[in-house]
Protein: Aspartic peptidase domain-containing protein
Amino acid sequence: MKLLHLAPILYSLPLSSARTLLLNRRPRSDIPNTHGTMLLATDGGKNFDIDVTVGADNQPFKLLVDTGSSDTYIMRDSFTCINATSNLVIPEENCNYGPETYTPSSSYEEIPGETFGVQYGAGRASGVMAYETITIANITVRAKLAIADTSEPMGDGVNNGLLGLGYPSLTSAHPGKTVPNDTYFFNRAVYSPVFNTMYEQGLVEPYFSIALAHTTRNRTSTFGGYLGLGELPPVERKGEFTTVPVEIMNNIPANFTSNKRQRAYWAFTVKGVEYGTAAEAENDTLTTDDNPWQVFVDTGNDFSILPAAVVDPVNARFSPPAVWKEDLNIYVVDCDAQAPVFGVKIGDQTFYHAPEDLIYDMGHGICASALVASEKVGMVGNVVLNVLGVPFHKNVVGVFDFGKNEMRYAQV
Structure:
């Protein structure tokens, strides 16, 4: 789920190309990969898409892999694209989805009395709920899908929707034929998402894993890592896994999760951070901040959105320092800047970011720090949330375990 909503200028920047570096993603022969699949990195390594087929006729699509939401939605044929500011209908291509759209197949079964409506930081989508057949990583299941017939611009030019991997309490079906779009966070008709349906039917173990690839700062499509369903991805790890329990988020109102205090996001408490310049790292004088804060992890978010008390001093360690630009809603940094050392303390380990993952090339000579203050942009409704997004996940193998309600991370 994208919380960071960049200024419109950034969505119209042209594409450029560069060679891609595949770092720390060497296949391991000792790990089976029967229910794993490769990801496609798009938009300069900010989005990660997976191949799926849908329907009795196996229509092929690419969907954004998103641990920060729970619905799987697909844009149907002849959908309506809506301008997020004016609410006016705009050309379909302005929504920037991929060329394929879904046409109801013989296995399509619309669910009466339910409506799909979701609010992301990047925009809204709505439509109907339906049972349909979907295949992901050699696993075929009949599950509830959201078939979207209306959307604001949210695509990456390649995908045609989203694969949500969060907890069922975040699903965005709603009772009734129509739902006001300012109530999408509430009044949920909770259901079992696609992956949960797979393990409930005994098709897969109750965990999935993700390893995102490092990419250079370009805006082309390239290898993006792996998603494993009930298994680990075939990559080398530098150490053992650390384990943390999935927590109920303290500041999420109960009416966001059907008036129950329950797990929704893949959330846990970060114990602290370490940061500093490369020289400070060499001299073993990194700054340590051991103030804990709660966070959720989101592979659908381009940026990591963390407390200002963390972000501001880290961004000041870029050489030259990153500077907040209100009109762009980002911390602008020199594209050739030297990135700082930055590590996040989780469980009994500190996970460090590769320097190249802390700078995003937005095009037009504009580069941004991958770290943004949650007090500035990390909003769901009126709630401020902290997010570990794509920059963090390019440096770890993450295991998301519904069976044990825990998360496991290892550095790569």
